[in-house]
Amino acid sequence: MVIAVTGAAGKTGRAVLAALAARGVETRALVRPGQVVEATETVHVDLADASQVATALDGVSAVYVIAPNVHPSEPSLVANVLAADVPRVVYHSVLHPAIEAMPHHWAKARSEELLLASSADWTILQPCAYAQNLQPAPVLQVPYSVDARFAFVDLLDVAFVAARVLTESGHSYATYQLAGPELLSVSDVAALLGARAERVDPNDWYLDTPLRGYARDALGAMFLYYDAHGLPGNASTLATLLAREPTRMSEVLAR
After folding, report:
1. Residue ranges of the domains in the chain?
2. Helix, strand, coil percentages in the chain from 3-state DSSP, rounded to 5
């Protein structure tokens, strides 16, 4: 068995590669030129080039599809992977992709549709925002309400589930929400750290960020949605897949 991981140089890809390695699985990391990761083999590829993708995926048993973060053409990248005719495809989506107010969520919903219409044996994972996104600091600054609630999920829990559904049977044509076991605000996380939470004006963020174009607009829309609604979720599916309680935020921070 050789399992490929696209977008393997990001934090999600690295975590999934490590989880697969812990199971003794040979891995093929698909990364951009110049990027280095720990895998059985590494292939440099442009996911926007269908012929490169097909060559990079030749002979693999399964592929874990991670698109570049907030990519303006995510559905087309997913389509290129599906065109390679890999027998087993697991797609890294997002919790609640059908929220049209967040363009990059909506793009993942469109990508999910491609899997549903494909001939592949597919599984879709829908993780919430990672607990690791909130790094310890004296002040936690975010451009949305510090009281909005989220089902923050441990990245290592997500990686464990990814490795499990890639290597075990029984997960074909399933869509799994991966949400953490608590609904926490940034204020709650700051309290766990003995820190302070502070809301940055999203307009100031929009002006100050080095991002441009689709990425800036998509993240700006996400922050507006977070400000009003947060991103709650239910941890029961994750608990079943882990065969234990999902990791709590305090455990992630302690780690």
Report:
1. 2-254
2. 40, 20, 40
Q: How many helices (H) and strands (E) does the chain have?
A: 10, 9
Q: What is the pLDDT of residues 70-127, one digit of tens each?
A: 999 999 999 999 999 999 999 999 999 999 999 999 999 999 999 999 999 999 999 9
Residues of the chain short of pLDDT 70, as ranges, are none
The token duo for 177 is 């929400």
| Res 135: pLDDT | 87
- Residue 233 CA to chain centroid, in angstroms? 15
Nearest alpha carbon to residue 197 among 145, 240, 151 = 145
Determine the 3-state secondary structure of 174 from DSSP: strand
Question: 155 — alpha (psi -120 to 50), left (phi > 0) or beta?
Answer: alpha
What's phi and psi for 134, nearest 5 deg? -100, 95
> Would you list the DSSP string of 39-100?
SSEEEE--TT-HHHHHHHTTT-SEEEE-PPTT-TTHHHHHHHHHHTT-SEEEEE--SSTT-T
Q: What is the CATH number of domain 2-254?
A: 3.40.50.720
Q: What is the pLDDT of residue 113?
A: 98
Chain centroid offset of residue 147 CA: 23
Distance CA 103, CA 22 (A): 35
Cβ-based burial of 134 (10 A; exposed 0-12, middle 13-18, buried ≥19): buried
* Cα 136 to Cα 192: distance, rounded to the nearest angstrom: 10
